[in-house]
Amino acid sequence: MPKIFSKNDKILRKVAAEVPIENIKSEKIQKIIADMREVLAREEDGVAIAAPQVGAALRIFIISGKVLKMKEAREKIKEKDKTLDSDDVVSPDLIFINPEITKTSKTAKLMEEGCLSVRWWYGEVRRAVKATIRAFDEDGKIFTRGASGLMAQIFQHEIDHLNGILFTDKAKKLRETPPPNEEKA
Question: Which of 53, 71, 78, 144 is the most exposed place for a label (fewest CB within 10 A)?
Fold first, then answer.
């Protein structure tokens, strides 16, 4: 079972290497993506994960399909169609290989963040409210995607991981918030 590397693991401080395009469909890369999906699915509060967090210093990250469905469900409720079916709950994960942020808004704001590699610590990080990213998917096809709000924040947080930066390096008002029913060890 793949594990999540924590803040003290050196791999999280390395700049991740690009994946050669011809290797995207290789067994090795597909196994790393499968491990990342497994870890992300296991963490109820996880919205995304970068390859270094599972021990692979490669420029790959995944955004959980839960994030997309949460956004769609909120929009559906706003439209006063309060019926949600099972298709509203599950969406495929988004895979980003060799991602590059190509544009960010000039407007930035402090946003609450946490991280699976820095468990139970939270803080405010200044992030652009909009971002555009270009990457390859798991089939080796290039795509561009724009986002605002939470998705734009995730793009920036995960790119930081690929550059050896943790959110705690940038955060203000850092605080530890242990999970419910758990005491500090």
Answer: 78
